[in-house]
Amino acid sequence: MSPDTAPHVRRYVVVFGALLALTLTTVTISYLRLPSAPTVALGLTIAAAKAALVAMFFMHLKGERPMVCWPLALTAFLFAALFAFILWTEADHIVLTTTYHLPPTN
Amino acid sequence: MTSLPYTTDVRPDTGLTNPKLGIWLFLASEVMLFGSLFSAYVLLRTGDPLWPDQSAVLNVPLATLNTIVLISSSITMVLAWEALKMRRIERYRLYMGLTLLLGAGFLLVKAIEYGDKFSHGLMPSTNNFLGLYFTMTGLHALHVLAGMVVNAYLLGPGVRMWQAEPERFTNRVEVAGIYWHFVDLIWIFLFPVLYLL
Asked: Which of B9, B46, B76, B146 pairs as cysteine with A94 (C-beta 3.0–4.6 A)?
């Protein structure tokens, strides 16, 4: 354990700045009231980017051992399969209405 | 001295300490737990022509604040671990304390949100969206609380281990940090899915 980890601290601050910027971006985009499909695509892409930053740099997945990475890759595959089956079930009648004109619940 | 093996030395076959491998396998199971709820959301929302305008029901500015609070707690958590690696125990106490404070702030905002919903008669039973909202954010909040209990132990009675076994204690904080970042990661997906889409 060497004492000169100051460069790492700087990296965390940079990542923090990126996460803040992406958060504000995703909120701003939501106020644009785009149609459903681009809203979902953009929102999930930005979320995935934020998640990748947290996983790679805060959780130190970048440069982690294969023994960690392979179980996670399997998890990602199974997670994707779960979603694929759900969407496949609904594929013939997916409705994703742009709901902005509807009143709030009750 | 240690009762469990490979808490500071890596196992020759995995190349990891046991706690490091253990926490990642646990998080893999947590991905499937929250994944099942996210996929329930997808199933219920697709095909529902009357899904409410989520951003009209929920408070987006408050949730944006909460997102920033939780991301901030992630950085204070990783800075706490870095402080231990630099052998600066007082700096560790500061950052771990800040992590706990920010976690408490997150839960306080959630309590305010929930209270506001209940006072308007919006309950989990009201419709599918609210059922999913309360279930997913409620389960997430329980995970935040559990992480705070662990972090409070590591700031309080648990810090005694720093005197006798500093490297083992540092690894404990690292592993607790990985869990805490995962809780942040889940919220990074919950926030856009439940509030913005």
From this structure: B46
Answer whether B159's CB lies under 8 Å from B54's CB.
no
Question: Average pLDDT of A48-60?
Answer: 94
Q: Is residue B175 a contact partner of residue B19, using CB atoms and an 8 Å limit?
A: yes
Q: Is the Cβ of A104 closer than 8 Å to some Cβ of chain B?
A: yes
B9 at A interface, C-beta within 8 A: no
Burial environment of residue A33 by CB neighbours within 10 A (0 to 12, 13 to 18, 19 or more): exposed
Name the DSSP letter for residue A103.
P
Taking residues A35-62, what's their average pLDDT?
A: 92
Q: Which amino acid is at B174?
A: E
Q: Contact at 8 Å (CB) between A29 and A39? A: yes
pLDDT in tens, A22-44: 999 999 999 988 888 888 899 99
Q: With an 8 Å Cβ cutoff, are A68 and B16 in contact?
A: yes
Distance between CA atoms of residues A99 and A48, nearest Å: 24
d(CA A79, CA B185): 15
pTM listed for this prediction: 0.92
% of chain B with per-residue pLDDT over 90? 89
**What ipTM was estimated for this complex?**
0.90
